[in-house]
Every structure is written in structure tokens, then in C-alpha cells.
Amino acid sequence: MKFISLVDTKNQNVITIDEDSLILRIKINEQVKETRLKPYMASVLYEMFSKHPIPLPYEQITEILRQHHLIVSDLMRMHRRLSEIRLFIAQFHPNLDDIILNTRGVGYSLPLRFKNLHQIEPKENIKFKNQEINKAIEALHGLILDAIDMTSKSKIIYSPLGYIMNREPVKQIIVEKISIFNECEQIILKEIRTHEAEFISLRIAYLLVKLKTFIGLARISEYPISEAQWLDWFKQEVWLFFDQLKNLIRSVENL
């Protein structure tokens, strides 16, 4: 299984390369768009993603292109193929028009603002002045760990809404977890002490709703993927939302 997801730290967009399926996917504000790649494009992009932030050397790119039976007799032909990839991606989505950079004389790389989601860990060191919020956040952290554990033991099934986790074996446990989550949510929304119509209050409420779907194992995928890939994406997304929630709460305390 050869897929890698990167997050653009400038706007939180997530871009995924799946070499096995020849798919490039971008997720913007929960909206997913994907395109099918030519085999050589998928191979080059996967290697660039996997080496990031280190540039992919010209020599390695040339070797990849030759493995796909392309004629690459000199650097000019290699650069031409990379220009084709860059143009294809820009036409796929304008937000990605600068994703491929040429480090002259070295190789091609991605902007440093992209971070590998597979390597992102939750920022457990964020503490809050309000002890009630601290307790609620610690409880949410535990609920997320429990959800990840349940997800790793579940099977993917198809429903009219898409591909979901089979919740039946742990349905009663989920009921209990959601009850705990609701208590944490009420504490956080009460203790941030901002009007519910304020922008930051709405964003915090939004992130809490997103986290609730993960804790309740209600994540939906439109695409058929393996349990391993589901769990990987689940962990990537839930920790990202959790960190965003903590950062927003911290910003309220600093007002």
C-alpha cells in the first residue's frame, strides 16, 4: 500500500497521493476532489511525497521515468516531464499550482509548508489557564484514543452514505463515549465565555461536532479503502481537528 497524505499548514488543505490506485486527491473544507494520474506521474509524485522535505534528485527522477519506458536521454527531457506533471496538477486544482519546486542543480521538491500527516502527533503539551477546560480536553484525548482502538478492531462496510465502520459490535460502548463527550462539550462551550454567535465560538462548536463524529465512529469515505488505510486517515484527521480545537481555545484565553 503506497499512499501518503500531506497537510498544507497555510490553509489546512490535505493532499493525498495513492500510487497503487494512480489517484491524486485534495480535501478542502471537507470537500474532496480527485483525479486519475498517468502511471509515471503517480510514481514521481509518490517518491517526492515520501522524501519530503528532501528534494527528489534528478537522477532518481530520470530512473523512475525510464522504468515507465519513457525516453529520457538528457536533463531537458526530464524537466519536460516534470513540467507536464506541474501543469496537470495546476489544471486539476489552482490551489496546487506551486506544489512542485525545482531546486536548481539538485532535484524537485515540495514547499516546506507541507507537512506529512502520517508523522503528525497530537500536541499534548498545550495547557489551559482554566482547569475545567484542562479536564475536558484531557477527557477528549482519552475518548480519541478509545475511538482509535475501536476503529482498529472494526470492519469497513458499505452503506447508502458511503464506506463506514461497522459500529454494531461496539454500539453500547459508543453510547457511553458520546455521553462523556457531551459533558466535555458543555464544559468547553460554557467556560470559553464568549457569545455563541461569535466567530470563534462557532468555529469551536464546529470542531467539536467534527470530533464527535470521530468518537462516534461516524466517519464516511466515498471510496473503498482497506481497514489499514481507513485507520491511518482516521488518526490523521482526528488529531488534526483536536489540535485545531486546542489552538482555538488557547486563542480565546489569550484575548
Briefly, what is this?
The protein has 255 residues and is α+β, with helices and mostly antiparallel strands. It is built from seven helices and ten strands. It has two domains: 3-117, Winged helix-like DNA-binding domain superfamily/Winged helix DNA-binding domain (Arc Repressor Mutant, subunit A, Orthogonal Bundle), CATH 1.10.10.10; 121-253.
Question: How would you describe this protein?
Answer:
The chain folds into two domains: about 5-115, Arc Repressor Mutant, subunit A (Orthogonal Bundle), CATH 1.10.10; about 120-255. It has seven helices and ten strands. Helix 4 (about 130-150) packs antiparallel against helix 7 and helix 6 (about 200-215) packs antiparallel against helix 7. It has about 260 residues and is an alpha+beta fold. The protein has helices at about 40-50, 60-65, 75-90, 130-150, 170-190, 200-215, 225-255, and strands at about 5-10, 15-20, 25-30, 30-35, 55, 100-105, 105-110, 115, 155-160, 160-165. The chain starts with a strand and ends with a helix. The protein is elongated, with a radius of gyration of 21 Å. The strands form three sheets. A five-stranded antiparallel β-sheet has the order 4-3-2-1-8. Strands 5-7-6 form a three-stranded antiparallel β-sheet. It has a two-stranded antiparallel ribbon with strand order 9-10.
